C-alpha cells in the first residue's frame, strides 16, 4: 500500500532578493511511499530497490555475485513497474489505466528497462540495487493518451517590474493528494489552471507544478521567481482530493495577471 507523506528533510539556502542576506530554511520533500519504491514529488523521480541471491551452486563465486546483481536489477525493474502502475495521473485515473494504450505501455516499459542504477551493495549473500526513473519520462509516456493534451504555446515576454511572476497555492490545511495533472478551479467550478493553459514542452520538462511543504521556501523558490501570488485554497474536490478550489477573488487575479505565468508552469503547491 502506498502512503503519501513527508519523510525526508534537507537543507536549502533561501536568498533574500536585494536584501543582502541569507538564511537556512528546512525543506521537507513530498513523497509517496510503498514497501519497495517511492515517488519523490518534490524532486521528480520514482525510486525503487531490488534484491537477489546467487544460484545455490554459484554461491561464494564471482559468477554468483554477477548473477545476483543481474537478478537484483530484474527485481528492481519489477518493483518499479508495480509501483508506477499506481501513480496517479489525474483525479480519475492512474498509470495502469493508460497502459492499456500500446504506445504508453511500450514507453513505460522502456523507461523501466533504462532505469538508472544509483546504488548497489553486496554483503556476500544478497545483492541489493537502487535505481531511479524520472517523472518527466512518465509524463512523456502518458501525454499522448491524455484526454486533454497540452499544446505548443509561445512563452510570454519576461515579466515587467511589479508583475506577478508565479503562483503559490497553499493547501497545507487540506488533505490534498498529489498527481501528475490536476485542475485549479474557482468556486463556480470554472478552470483557472490546468493542461489547457500550459505549454507542452514546459509541462513535459517540469510538470504542472512542484510540490513543497515549506511556504517560506516556496515563496522565494526560482520556479515562481521573486513576486508570486500566494493563494490559500478553499477546498479540494472530493472524493479524490486532487483538484484544488481557490477563492473567486484569487481566480480573477490569476486570469487577469499581466504576465501569464500559467503558460510556463510557474506554479508551486505547498502541502502538509
Description:
- The chain is α/β, with parallel strands linked by helices and 272 residues long.
- Helices cover 25% and strands 29% of the residues.
- It is built from 7 helices and 14 strands.
- The chain has helices spanning 62-84, 95-98, 102-113, 135-142, 200-206, 215-219, 248-255, and strands at 3-16, 21-33, 37-40, 45-52, 116-122, 127-134, 166-170, 184-185, 191-193, 210-212, 228-232, 235-236, 244-245, 267-270.
- The strands form 3 sheets. Strands 1-2-3-4-6-5 form a 6-stranded antiparallel β-sheet.
- α3 runs antiparallel to α4 (135-142).
- Residues 6-24 have low confidence and may be disordered.
**What is the percentage of strand-forming residues?**
25-35%
Give the oligomeric state of the chains in this entry, treating copies of one chain as homo and distinct chains as hetero. single chain
Radius of gyration: 21 Å
- Residue-averaged pLDDT, rounded? 92
Give the tally of β-strands: 14
Helix count, DSSP H or I runs of 4 or more residues: 7
- Write out the strand line-up for the largest beta sheet, numbering strands in chain order: 1-2-3-4-6-5
Spatial shape: elongated
Structural class category: alpha/beta
Main beta-sheet annotation: 6 strands, antiparallel
Which regions contain 5 or more consecutive residues with pLDDT less than 50?
A: 6-24
H/E element sequence: EEEEHHHEEHEEEHEHEEEHE
Distance separating the two termini: 20 Å
Percentage of residues assigned to helices: 10-25%
Amino acid at each position: 500500500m502506498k502512503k503519501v507523506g513527508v519523510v525526508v528533510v534537507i537543507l536549502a539556502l533561501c536568498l533574500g532578493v536585494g536584501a543582502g542576506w541569507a538564511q537556512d530554511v528546512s525543506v521537507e520533500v513530498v513523497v509517496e511511499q510503498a514497501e519497495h519504491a517511492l515517488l519523490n514529488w518534490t524532486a521528480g523521480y520514482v525510486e525503487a530497490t531490488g534484491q537477489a541471491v546467487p544460484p545455490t551452486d554459484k554461491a561464494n563465486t564471482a559468477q554468483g555475485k554477477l548473477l545476483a546483481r543481474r537478478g537484483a536489477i530484474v527485481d528492481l525493474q519489477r518493483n518499479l513497474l508495480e509501483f508506477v502502475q499506481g501513480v496517479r495521473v489525474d483525479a480519475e485515473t492512474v498509470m495502469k489505466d493508460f497502459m492499456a494504450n500500446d504506445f504508453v505501455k511500450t514507453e513505460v516499459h522502456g523507461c523501466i528497462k533504462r532505469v538508472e542504477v544509483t546504488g548497489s551493495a553486496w554483503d556476500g549473500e544478497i545483492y541489493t540495487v537502487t535505481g531511479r526513473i524520472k517523472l518527466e519520462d512518465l509524463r512523456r509516456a502518458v501525454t499522448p493518451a491524455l484526454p486533454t493534451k497540452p499544446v505548443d504555446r509561445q512563452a510570454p515576454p519576461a515579466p515587467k517590474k511589479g508583475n506577478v511572476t508565479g503562483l503559490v497555492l497553499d493547501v497545507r490545511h487540506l488533505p490534498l493528494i498529489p498527481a501528475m495533472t490536476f485542475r485549479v478551479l474557482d468556486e463556480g467550478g470554472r478552470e483557472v489552471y490546468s493542461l489547457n493553459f500550459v505549454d507542452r514542452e514546459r509541462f513535459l520538462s517540469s510538470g504542472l507544478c512542484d510540490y513543497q511543504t515549506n511556504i517560506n521556501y516556496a515563496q522565494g523558490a526560482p520556479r515562481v521567481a521573486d513576486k508570486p501570488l500566494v493563494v490559500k485554497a478553499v477546498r479540494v474536490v472530493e472524493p479524490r482530493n486532487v483538484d484544488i478550489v481557490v477563492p473567486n477573488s484569487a481566480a480573477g487575479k490569476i486570469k487577469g495577471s499581466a504576465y501569464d505565468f500559467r503558460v510556463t508552469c510557474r506554479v508551486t503547491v505547498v502541502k502538509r
